[in-house]
Amino acid sequence: MFGLYPFEEQWRSALACVTVVVMTVLSCIPAFWTGRRIALVWGTGAALYYVLMKGGVLGLAHVGEEAWGGLALTLFIFVTTCLIGFPLAICLALLRRSDLPWISRTTGLIIDGVRSLPLISILFTFAIVLPFALPQWLQGDKLYRVILGSALFFSAYQAEIVRGGMQGVPAGQEEAAMALGMSYWQRIGRILLPQAMRNALPATINQFVISFKETSLVVIVGFFEILASGNAAYGTGEWRFAYVEVYAFIALIYFVFVFSLSRYGAFLERRMSVGER
Fold first, then answer.
1. Total tally of structural domains belonging to the chain
2. Structural domain ending residue among the three candidates 20, 50, 67
3. Which of 228, 215, 67, 74 is nearest to 150 (CA)?
4. pLDDT for 129-150, tens place per residue?
């Protein structure tokens, strides 16, 4: 559950997990679906998570990112990957459908190039290779470079999902909006994107599920998320007898999160289909 996090400070990691879960649940409640409320929930939750995990303030002992692990690290990587990758995916999708050929073709080359690479190679490049090409002041911590690589991979796939949703919107609707004198951003924000996201919802939920399970790949660059922490646990003499129980417990955690996400996706589909009628 806590990976390499110091034993005497593990209560902070537990509270950080609760913070992420509460933040996610509140984001799924329709009453919070306004820009100001969502920003308040995510801003407060992210700040509280970082303070609890990092410490160094309010009398909390400092714990470096290299000691983060377990469920808290898994949730952190997943949430930040989606938080960074989703807006980036929308930008890439809009750029790919640009009327300027050099923009659309360059964006398409970037998307297809990222999608043609396995995630492990991208994580390894951002964690190990990239520091050799960057100045010291621009390198940052390895964890954040890994998150950026994961977000780039997520955005490349999600951009194609969003673009597919846009193609499902009848062209006449955007033409009608242009005839009414609506600006480009008004057409995108009020006509195109809402319908595109509804069309792309099933594939989007599937992409979120895949991204949550792919957090286990960060073990390749030295991070002990929940699955790697389980491997390390039953590798010790104290837990060697219980490897089946360890994997069953980890499987249960993955099942709870992924099944809940899938059921929420089904709820959104029902809600949107009611809106159509």
1. 2
2. 67
3. 215
4. 888 887 777 777 888 889 999 9
